[in-house]
Every structure is written in structure tokens, then in C-alpha cells.
Amino acid sequence: MAHKPLHELTVEEFVDGITGGNRHLLSRAITLVESNRPDHEQKAHAILDRCLAAGRRSIRIGITGSPGAGKSTFIEAFGLELLRHGLRVAVLAIDPSSTRSGGSILGDKARMEHLSSKPEVFIRPTASSGYLGGTSPRTHETILLCEAAGYDVIIVETVGVGQSEIVVNSMVDFILLLMLPGSGDELQGIKRGIMEIADAVAITKADGERAGIAQVSKADFESALRLLPEKHPGWERKVLLTSSLESAGIADVWQNIREFIDNLQLNGQLEQMRREQLRLLLYTIVEDRLKRAFFSNPAVAAAKGPVEQQVLSGTLSPFSGAMQLLKLGSGLA
Ligand SMILES: Nc1nc2c(ncn2[C@@H]2O[C@H](COP(=O)(O)OP(=O)(O)O)[C@@H](O)[C@H]2O)c(=O)[nH]1
Ligand SMILES: [Mg+2]
Fold this sequence. Notes:
By secondary structure, this protein is α/β, with parallel strands linked by helices. The protein has three domains: 1-54, Single alpha-helices involved in coiled-coils or other helix-helix interfaces, CATH 1.20.5; 56-270, P-loop containing nucleotide triphosphate hydrolases (Rossmann fold); 282-330, no CATH class. It is built from 14 helices and seven strands. The protein has helices at residues 11-19, 23-34, 38-53, 71-84, 103-111, 113-116, 137-148, 163-169, 191-197, 211-227, 250-266, 269-296, 298-313, 318-330, and strands at residues 59-65, 89-95, 121-127, 153-159, 174-179, 200-203, 238-241. A seven-stranded parallel sheet has the order 3-2-4-1-5-6-7, with helices on both faces. Helix 2 packs across helix 3 and helix 13 packs antiparallel against helix 14. The radius of gyration is 22 Å and the shape is globular. The termini are far apart.
């Protein structure tokens, strides 16, 4: 492709393009955000600063659940529902396995076939680049770019591996947890942490022979949710039955999210939540920068292997090892 190299486009060209709805430039700006090159990063942040100043707002929805829970298929049906309401939709599909194979992303694209062909829709598969569960400050920055591009609803798909949802929780307004029919027994274990951050649960694939068991799961999850502490005071978390294949219950999910947003807007919680998101982004960026600066320090890079070996062989304690590295890095110890 005969694109101008990224560095040749000015910040103004990027910002005008993004805010003017140019999907190609939005995509290239996201590539800058994801780049590790210092000049790219600098440019990305200049673009982000200008984009934030545009002050556009969206509804940000996190969709989480185990692999195979039906997230991508749900987003296809849900996205089409949003289009019927005249909304523009951005989808950030984050897949931790994508760095290795790329295969699952292709699968996701296929599952969002109708959605991805619409001009009002922007779909961006995002490689996790080593972050737990695939979310990073970059995901948040990408959300901000999509917002500046005028997308009304931004959907972030993450695989439910535990920690990633907690991170996503800091950048979206609403978290929808997708669960398979008959998964009620998972309520005892690891899924509890994820349940605590969900604003609603959708039982997926409630069609065909699974319809009956989906009803049972709905009741299981409803009672489990009642036992959890409130996430947002005054918001009662619902369990909804959905079938993406039959487009059933999809409109109810959107209705539920609208109610949630209206509810939080009325009592000022939405504003508070947005401020909290910015506060967390501030510190996430600081931590991310410190960490990268530290590990890219040549002295640290050289000592890391040997120190690690000594810790593993028991000749050095992890604490002393950490201090050695920190001293080499920046005198932080
Ligand atoms: N019967 C039925 N199957 C579904 C439904 N939604 C998804 N599936 C199937 O479940 C599998 C996993 O779906 P996918 O969306 O890729 O799940 P993800 O890994 O959570 O993104 C696919 O084979 C889908 O065709 C549904 O509503 N009903
Ligand atoms: Mg998927």
C-alpha cells in the first residue's frame, strides 16, 4: 500500500482526520498509540491531547466472559441493534492469544461479518502485547481516540481470565458479563471476582435445547448477585437471557444499559465515574512509563538475567535482587 509514512502526517492532519470521521487515519493513530517507538509515542500523545480537547462523549461498554461464551457473536447482534438506533459503533476486540497466532482475531472478524461491513462501524482487533488479559493504558488511549472520532458506543471485548476485567473496569462505564447456560456451578470459584464488577449478566445461547437450562442459570445468577455487595448504589444488576443467533434479548440488554446510564447521570455518579477513569489513567501511564524506562535501562537489562538466576538458585533473596536492580536502574532504592 502506498501510504505516506506515519511520521510524515502532521498532528493537525491526524486530528482533523479523526474528528472528521476518517477511519483510516483513526486506525493509523491507534497504530501510533500501540507503537513502542519514542517518536510515535510522542506524536500519539500530541494527537490524544488534541482529541481529548474535542470533549466528545460515548457510552463505553466492556463485554467479558470465557472463551466460547459467545462474546463476538453477541457483539455482532448487539452492534446491529445499536445501528438500528442510528448509533455509530466502535469495537475493540482484545485477545491475549492474538500475539501468537492471530487466528482467533480472524475468527472474531468472521463472527462480526455483517457488522464489520457497515460504514458506521469501526472494528479494531488489538493484540495484547504482553499485558495481562490484553488491556493496557493503550486500550484506554484507543478508547479516547474512538470517542474523538464520534463513535456513540464503544465496545471493548475481553477474555475473562480474571484480572483483565478489573483493568477494563477502570475504562468503561458498564460491564456486561456473558455466561453460558449451565455455568452456574462456576459461581463458587474464580468467577466470583468477575461477578463483582459486572453491571449485568447475560446468559448467552438461550436457544434450542439450551433454553430450559438457561432459565435455571438465570435464577442461579440472580440469587448470586443478590448476595454480592453493591457496585453502584441504587443499581440493581439484572440477569438477561439472550440468543445472538435468534437476536433474542439483545434489545433488552441495550435497554438495560440505557437505564443504567440515565440512572447514574441523574445522581451524578456518571461524572464521578468518568473523573475516576481519568485519575486511574493518569497513574497507569505513570506506572507504565516508569516500568518501561526501568527495564529498558541498559544496566538493568544486563543485570536482569544474572540476578534472576541467583534468586532462582537461592543464593540471593528476591528482595535483595530487586534492590540491586533498582539501584542500577535509577537509584530508586
Ligand atoms: N446456539 C447458539 N450458538 C451461539 C450463540 N452465540 C454464539 N454461538 C456459538 O458459540 C461459539 C463461540 O462464539 P464466539 O462468539 O466466538 O465466542 P467468544 O469466544 O466468547 O467470542 C461459536 O461457534 C458461535 O457460533 C447463540 O446465541 N446461540
Ligand atoms: Mg471472541
